Amino acid sequence: MSVDVIRARGLDGVAHGFLGRRGGVSEGLFASLDLGRRSQEVDDWIAENRRRVIAATLPGAALCTLYQVHSATAVVIDAAYEHDARPHADALVTDRPGLLLGILTADCAPVLFADPAAGVVGAAHAGWKGALGGVTDATLDAMERIGARRDRIVAAIGPCIARASYEVDDAFLATFAAADPANDRFFADGRAGHHQFDLEAYVAHRLAAAGVTRVEALGLDTYAQDDRFFSFRRATHRGEADYGRQISVIGLGG
To answer: What is the CA radius of gyration of the chain?
Structure first.
């Protein structure tokens, strides 16, 4: 099975892809394109899966990922680095050709950014904490520092957990309402004391509010598509011991 590369229309002409779980070599709960390194036992799987990601999106590039911590921190990358030297952050941007920026997710929202005219790209990991804290705003600021213009930036939101699959409690809603009472529009009524949160819509709202005029949301639910995507929440509901991570990537050609 070939690597499943999902592309956004708005990023046409820029090397990128939202990759699902198909087309790799990892096995069991992690079948088959898992990118989450956990132990020496799976390092060979991850190395081959990384090679396949690069070949499917930007051949010859150096894949740069992060030690993701659910923060609102964005870093500028100007050279490749070893996996063990990954920055602790949740977004990265570059203007250097040959670097493939990668974000790992398993329900959180991956967001890819590009200002093709400036030759600047970015990628962000927007879980609810990072999204609320402003990780997409930080990504835009970092892109502008190296020459991008906000009114030219295109952003695409990839596969993430959808509202129908994302049940949260009253305390969760209260956290968002405390930041902005208008945030209640991103929650639908659920069972008693619970609500359904629309992460994708919230991230799209934050991008638009920050001045991004071209935002594309792919509308793909990681929880609902077992054969296509990894999902932390689905694995938790099933009582599984662990879960895989898919990757979303963007880069500049030489």
So the answer is: 17
